[in-house]
Write a sequence for this structure.
């Protein structure tokens, strides 16, 4: 189980502060409902989100309206970051977000 810092921002956003690991360029950001976050922590997905925050080109942790997959496990965990060439939205649906 992942034991690093994870701060709840609001109902669906969770932050990994950029001081979690020296060298992170931005905060890590996970979009998940409470039922999803327990599984996400078990799968070590937040560690992968933290690793993404090291990549060149990241200038902010969140661009409104974007969602990007950070993990390959079910349920999918998501991190948002802006890429100059592409934005991905894979593996999400309303059921995962407790919406009808």
């Amino acid at each position: 189980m992942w034991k690093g810092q994870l701060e709840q921002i609001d109902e669906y956003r969770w932050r990994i502060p950029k001081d979690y690991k020296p060298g992170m360029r931005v905060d890590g950001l996970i979009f998940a409902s409470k039922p999803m976050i327990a599984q996400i922590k078990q799968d070590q997905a937040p560690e992968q989100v933290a690793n993404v925050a090291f990549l060149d080109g990241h200038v902010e942790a969140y661009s409104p309206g974007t969602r990007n997959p950070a993990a390959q496990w079910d349920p999918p965990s998501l991190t948002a970051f802006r890429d100059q060439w592409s934005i991905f939205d894979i593996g999400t649906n309303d059921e995962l977000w407790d919406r009808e």
Notes: The longest strand covers residues 13-16.
